[in-house]
Please model this.
Amino acid sequence: MSFEELHGQFMSMLLRVMKGQLESSVYEDQCRSLLGTGSYELFTLDKLSAKIVKHMQLMLQDDTTTKLWELYKCVPCGVVDTLEPQP
Model:
């Protein structure tokens, strides 16, 4: 099987698990059968992705985070240099 085919199958599985169409345990088993025992890092991606999405959803609902984002967009580039400790 070529690299492109492996990558395509893996991405298809990852998207299905992120959409809730595939159970995590089935995803892990399919990763192992597709890529071997060294696929541990890949089958932890579903957990990492889910946590990132959940955290971003919480951030969007939080007023303080929204205000900080608006403030960040107003600050011109280069101002961060002034935040370094003074000698």
